[in-house]
Amino acid sequence: MRHIEAGVALHSATALIQEGQASVNLVAAIPSLHAGLTAAVSAFLWTRVRRKWRPLLVAYPLIMAFTLVYTAEHYVIDILLGWALAAVVVMASNRWEARRRDRASRPGEVHLAQGLADRPDGLGAGSEAVTVARGQIGGIAAVVAAFDFAFMGGSMGVAVGAALVAASRLAVERQAALIVIPSSGGARMQEGILSLMQMPRTIIAADLVKEARLPYIVVLTDPTTGGVAASFAAIGDIAIAEPGAVVGFAGARVIEETIHEKLPEGFQRAEYLLEHGMVDMVVKRGDLAATLARILRLLCQPAIASVPMVAHP
User: Which pLDDT tens digit goes with each residue over 112-145?
Assistant: First the structure.
């Protein structure tokens, strides 16, 4: 009888051990399964998130391996932490992408530095040396960037450069002409080398409009000098100046002291520049709107340019 009881007990013990081994094997397989799942999830998310978030995906398997070592008996916690990290990466990437697309879908709303207002109907009015607006002139779409000499002498700093880049991009987006009306003493000395960097920056902005085969018109007012005159103000497709406007890089007195010669009368004035081919026309402010409308119609309406020419014998 005792032998039978011992045999039953041994059989029960063997069954329990085998069941325990199966449980142990199943538990031991969890890290391998989870490691494979982690690698698969990381590879999938690598193709779904932007490059800036990919380092987190690289860190994801490392974090999982670390937690497996120190929390080997808490696989559920480990898996939950892993999936939580993956979810955070995906949500952050999707949110960043949504914000980027939202900014791209609103090209007129430009985020500028130094408090420049983010308004598509008048960027930075009163808050910087330039105001950007969009509308129509003579029925032709146009973007206008007008300087305000009352704001630090219309000096060109980082925010001004950003505004001109924004204006050029808005003009290209809306297939509109870009009209810039400078009134400036030049680069803003308070910003040092950063203000000088705006010279090539604004030239590139003007080139964006030209590459899109859109009119780029500059209306030179009094004064237009320094780095402004030596950059975007000098490369307009059409250069219009107001009567008596002073346009030039350095002042007349500085030039006379440098070359030790007396400059001619009216040097650097709009009329002098017109006589020497530096500007295309001198227009009074009261006639400016009609002149701009006429120029835009000539440049933006190809039907006028496509009128057949009649050859005379």
Answer: 333 333 444 444 456 789 999 999 999 999 999 9
Sequence-distant (≥ 6) Cβ neighbours of residue 112 within 8 angstroms: 118, 123, 124, 128, 159, 162, 163, 166
The pLDDT value recorded for residue 284 is: 95
∠ Cα 267 268 274 (to 5°): 95
Cis peptide bond N-terminal to 308, omega within 30:
no
Q: Between 1.10.260.40, 3.30.420.40, 3.90.770.10, 3.90.226.10, what CATH number should domain 130-303 receive?
A: 3.90.226.10
Are the C-beta atoms of residues 280 and 258 closer than 8 Å to each other?
Answer: no
Closest by CA position to 106, among listed 118, 94, 93: 118
12 HSE (CA, 13 A, CB side): 6
Under 8 Å between Cβ of 272 and 224: no
Tokens of 30: 């969890």
